[in-house]
Design brief:
Blueprint lengths: L18 E4 L4 E5 L4 H9 L10 E3 L11 H6 L16 E7 L5 E5 L5 H7 L8 E11 L8 E3 L1 H24 L4 H8 L11 E3 L2
Parallel strand pairs: 7-8
Antiparallel strand pairs: 1-2, 2-6, 3-6, 4-5, 4-6
Helix pairs in contact: 4-5
């Protein structure tokens, strides 16, 4: 039967073709019919001696929990981090069936650069994404908080964030490979990882 739920015992004992964790490479290969919620639950309960608390994606991206992993990547679904990006940025490799029936086993940025980029916004027009490989990390504690701000303060935060994003984009335009410096700039943005937790006073 297809896998759609986390393992019942909360351990790595239940293994199947739908979700395969590679602890050595810190990756997970997922059949694209698996939902986002099921993937999160599976990783969280994949407990081993190397990861007693389980695993998680590099940035949880808990939006769109009911969508399938394949759908959320092929439609370029957004995330809530200026640095980590949306779901397509999590893609390391894909297994794809093309329109003529051929199956490409390992589509990566190195092996098929144009197709790899296009798949992230393909909405199914370039073929069917069968499996995807994503980076994972050991489970970490994440907390969320709400802060009430005035409309003026909120607009100031937006303006400062816009200026910082412009600086990062300009840096990337001149130095496309210098993502570390650009990410460092983005992390200083007032709305980095906080946009969804601000409540504007009416």
């Amino acid at each position: 039967a297809p896998f759609y739920l986390a393992p019942a015992n909360g351990t790595a004992a239940d293994r199947g073709a739908d979700v395969l964790v590679d602890e050595a490479r810190k990756t997970v290969t997922v059949r694209t019919c698996v939902t986002v919620q099921a993937l999160h639950e599976y990783l969280a309960t994949y407990r081993t001696s190397s990861a007693p608390n389980g695993y998680m994606l590099s940035h949880p991206a808990t939006l769109f929990m009911g969508q399938t992993v394949g759908g959320i990547i092929a439609t370029a679904a957004h995330g809530s981090s200026l640095v980590e990006g949306g779901w397509p940025s999590k893609l390391l490799a894909a297994r794809v069936m093309l329109a003529d029936g051929r199956i490409l086993e390992d589509v990566t940025a190195e092996s098929h650069p144009l197709l790899f980029r296009a798949l992230k916004t393909s909405v199914g027009r370039l073929g069917i994404i069968l499996h995807v490989k994503l980076a994972i990390m050991r489970q970490a504690h994440i907390s969320a908080s709400w802060k009430r701000v005035s409309p003026r303060d909120f607009l100031q935060r937006v303006s400062r964030t816009e200026a910082i994003i412009s600086s990062a984009l300009e840096l990337r335009a001149h130095s496309p490979k210098d993502d570390v410096a650009a990410d460092s700039i983005l992390r200083k943005a007032p709305l980095h990882l906080t946009f969804g937790h601000l409540q504007v006073l009416q």
